[in-house]
Structures
1.
Amino acid sequence: MADDFDRELQARLAVIEDPDYVDPARADLPARDLVLLVVLGAALIVAMIWWSYPA
C-alpha cells in the first residue's frame, strides 16, 4: 500500500514540478469576471446598507 502511495505521489509531483506545467487555478481572472465581481460586491454592500436603516 505504501508503494502505491509513493508511486502516485511521485507521479503527481513530477507533473507539478514540470517547467511547462500551467496551473489553471492560478490563472488570472478575465477582466469581465473581475468587473462583474466588483459590481455585484458594490450592489450587495448598497443593499445591505439600505436594508439596515429603519423604515
Note: The two ends are 65 Å apart (CA to CA).
2.
Amino acid sequence: MTLLIRHSLLLMFLCAILGFLFPSASMALFPFLPFVLFSLMTLTLLGIDQVKLMERLSRLNIWLYTAFHSLVLMLLVGVIGWLLGFSIELGLASVAIAATGSLFATPAIVRALDFDVMQAMAMTIATTLSLPIVIVLTLLVYQTEAIELDWVGYCYRLMIFIFGPMLFSYCIHKAVPKVVLNRFLSKITPYTIFLVFAFPFGLIGGYRTLFDQAPWIAFNYFLIATGLCFLFFGLSYCVYRRKGAAFAITAAITSGNRNVLLTYTIAGSLLGPAFLPLAGAIQLPTYLLPVISRWMSNRAKKQEE
C-alpha cells in the first residue's frame, strides 16, 4: 500500500490510459464520479482548519490568482485561437476550458507533493466560485443566443461540493476532540489520493468514442488539449516563480487541472459540440502534469540543499 501511495501521481496518469483502453468500464464509472467528488472534498476539508481556510480566502493574492487563472488565460487562449483560425465551436470550447475552475482533486495532488494544501484548496474554491461569471463572459463573446445558465443547478452543486463539506467539516471539528480527530485523519488522509484515480479513468471514455469514429479529429483535439494544459501550467509557473518553487508549482498544478465536468454541468449544450470531446482529450495531459510536478519538486529541493 505504501508503494502505491509513493507512486500515486504516476498511477493517476496510468488510470487515464486504462480508461482510454477500456471505454465501457470508463463510461460505467462516469455516473458515480459526483459521489467520489463529494467524498474527496469532505475528507480533504476534514484535514483543514476552516477558520484558516476562510482567512486564506480573504487574501488578495488568492483572488488575483483567480483573475489570472480565468480572465487572463481566457483572453490569451481566445487570441491564440483567433490567430490559428479556430472555428467558432472550437474557439468557444477552448476559452470555456480556460474559464473552468480548478479540479477538486487538486488539493489531494498538492498534498502528495508535500506542498501547501491550504493554498491549493483556497485557489480551487475561489476559481470555482468565479466560474459562473467567466462562463457568462465567454458565452457573450462567442454566442448570440439567449444565455440560460442552470443557476439553480450550479448553486445546488456549490452547496453539495463546497459549502456542504465545509459545514460538515466545521461541525466535526467542533464536536470531536482534536486528539481523536487528528488520530483518525493521520490514518486515513494518505489514502484519499486513491479517490482521485476515478477521475482520469471515468472522464476519458467519451473521448475514446470519438477516437473510434474519427481518429484524425480526435488526434487534433488531443494536440489542442495538450497545448492548453501545458500553456496553463507553464505560464502559471513562470508568473509565480518569484514567490518560490513550492508556490509556483502549486499555482501551476491548480491552473493546469480543470474541472471540465462541472463546467459542462452548468452550461451544457451552450458550450457547443466541441467542448465534450476537448474535455475528454484533456484528461491525459492533465494527469501527466502531476508526474512532471513531482520531477520539478525533487529538482527544486535538490537545488535548495
Note: Residues 211 and 218 are 5 Å apart (CA to CA).
